[in-house]
Amino acid sequence: MDRGDLEKWRKMAGLGGLLGRVVLPRAIDAYLGFPGPKGNPGELRGMAGTYGGIATDADGAQADVDKLAKSDLPQVWVGQAQERACEVIGAVAFELEHSVTVMTKARAELDQLADGIEAAQHSHASGKEALHQARNEGDFDRKQSIAIAGMDQVIAGYDQAKATQEASARVFTDLAAQARASQLDSSHLDAADKLVLGQSAVPGGPHDVNIIMSAGDAERASTKLDALNDADRARFDELLDEARSPQEKAYLMRALAAGHSIDEIAEFGAKIHPYGDDPEWLRDHLQPIYNTTDETTGQTIPTTYAGAKWEQTGGTCVAASSVTARAVVDPLYAFQLTTGGNPGDPASTSADAFEERFLHETERVYGRPANEGSGMSKDEGEDAANDEIGPATGAEYEFHDLDSPEDRRGIFNDVAESVDEGRPVPVQVEGFDDEGHRSGHQMMIIGHEDGMLQIYNPWGHTVWVSEDDFVNGHMEGASDSRLPTVDGVHLPK
Amino acid sequence: MHGKTDDELAALDVPTLLRAGLDTGAGRTELFGDGAVAAAIRLDQAGVLPRSVTFLAEIVRSGGPRYAAELPEPLPRPAQTSVVRPWLSAAAGADGEELARWLEAVAAVLALRANARHAR
């Protein structure tokens, strides 16, 4: 039985005449068999009390830690160990403050949940009482009116329990998303690292809404960190160790989360390192948006870069929100747009230069292509593949001339491997007419299974060909009789 | 292992192929083969440039599939967005690198189609 059944029986219970008399007792029984709202308000209140106690303890500890970070520690320690300790202590203080907020919210929510469930159970119980009374009532009209009032109470109890539970689920989902430190679950970070990275925030707004690494960033960074080989891991550790602030570390971690290679991150790291101890510089050049107000007002103010807006549509016919959206999740991309890769050059970091790069990028991504190439000669095909297909698949392509069956046999496994990795392989076919005139055409190898290759011909169809057909110049099934021979493929370098 | 025409490919249900190919891996060959061509044909009809799809793949790689699914304008025009939105929603829980690769494969097929048109 669900709410729909309850409503159905409620309607039938209101019928008059003979049918009403027959149906009413069954409707009452159906309601009496309906289970009440689950949950134990007493236990929920007990849990709320425990959370409240933790919040109070954390609040007291936070005051002590704050004092420690601000005064005692720097006096007794100097050098790198002291800086590291201050970072950790600072992060602990924020974590504790955050815990107080979360625990206090959780306590209030559990209390509300307990109240809501208690009220729902009460409504359900009095509804059931009325229904029992109705069952024993002899007079039909009285029986009917008591039963319907009872049914309404059961329905109200059901609705209230559902609404209370859904509201609580939303609040707890939000709270869970705020538990950032726990998202960094890489086995390669110690507890102090996780805390410092998870709590690093940009300046200029409330700490808790300006954490550099979102829960999603932390999750992706953890996955990437665990997937690094030993050499890359050592290089990345070195970058983190040299970082001049927790913020610099967090941006390096976000670069990793965004999917960049260690070479790219090292180059980026070297360029931002001179500004590593300037969190405002890092914020202004590595991310487009930060929160200047708190979460409760829900206000996110898109910032400007040196006075130029990150959101602009002038100059192109399309909105540029996705360019900004990419800069939000990729600090290397944001850095390229704000500085052009030359953070020390005033001309390259000016608002005008930023605006020009931003518009150029928008047009690059969404504008009409400038070169409408028309030929399909081998060279032009290669250029086209490098222009569009190369960047399109995130790897640079190299053309392999295949003049003989041996050449083609030799490259077959590389082709199959590329396709298996999800990188399609452009393939060039050719043929000669009776007068020796060459014609050529480009197709794409898009699948590989059981020694067969799936070819897409842009004339409008796919077809599977065997390794032997690929090797021995029998591609006419994929192209046509004029173009039987594979004479080259573009493979990722 | 039968070949298909563009009309047959364009009629394929891309979200279903994405769910099967990305989540279980069982339908991966079909997703990166027929599915990539089906997607490229649909995007071509909506006038999407290969580089716009590559850019979307980069956002998926950096921000994850869920982030991309929530973008207000994954592609510049509303008609184009309405083509790609159901795919991103279907793949919101998938591995980011795998979805990014698939989008790049789609972009490659899209580029091939454009080049073939210019060659005629």
How does the SSE layout of this entry go?
The complex is a heterodimer of chains A (493) and B (120).
Chain A: H1 3-13, H2 17-32, H3 41-76, H4 80-136, H5 140-178, H6 191-199, H7 215-227, H8 230-242, H9 246-257, H10 262-272, H11 279-286, E1 289-290, E2 301-302, E3 304-305, E4 308-309, H12 321-329, H13 331-339, H14 346-349, H15 351-366, H16 378-392, E5 397-401, H17 405-420, E6 425-432, E7 438-449, E8 452-457, E9 461-466, H18 467-471, E10 485-492
Antiparallel strand pairs in A: 1-2, 3-4, 5-10, 6-7, 6-10, 7-8, 8-9
Helix pairs in contact in A: 1-2, 1-5, 2-4, 2-5, 3-4, 4-5, 4-6, 7-9, 8-10, 9-10, 12-13
Chain B: H1 6-10, H2 14-24, H3 28-45, H4 50-63, H5 65-69, H6 78-90, H7 96-119
Helix pairs in contact in B: 2-3, 2-6, 3-7, 4-7
Brief synopsis:
The complex is a heterodimer of chains A (493) and B (120). Chain A has helices at 3-13, 17-32, 41-76, 80-136, 140-178, 191-199, 215-227, 230-242, 246-257, 262-272, 279-286, 321-329, 331-339, 346-349, 351-366, 378-392, 405-420, 467-471; strands at 289-290, 301-302, 304-305, 308-309, 397-401, 425-432, 438-449, 452-457, 461-466, 485-492. By secondary structure, chain A is an alpha+beta fold.
What can you tell me about this protein's structure?
The complex is a heterodimer of chains A (493) and B (120). Chain A is built from 18 helices and ten strands. Chain A is of the alpha+beta class and 493 residues long. Chain A folds into three domains: 41-177, no CATH class; 182-285, no CATH class; 301-492, Cathepsin B, Chain A. In chain A, helix 1 packs antiparallel against helix 2, helix 2 (17-32) packs parallel to helix 5 (140-178) and helix 7 (215-227) packs across helix 9 (246-257). The longest helix of chain A has 57 residues, at 80-136. Chain B is mostly helical and 120 residues long. Chain B has helices at residues 6-10, 14-24, 28-45, 50-63, 65-69, 78-90, 96-119. The model of chain B has no long low-confidence stretch (mean pLDDT 91). The chains are: A alpha+beta (493), B mainly alpha (120).
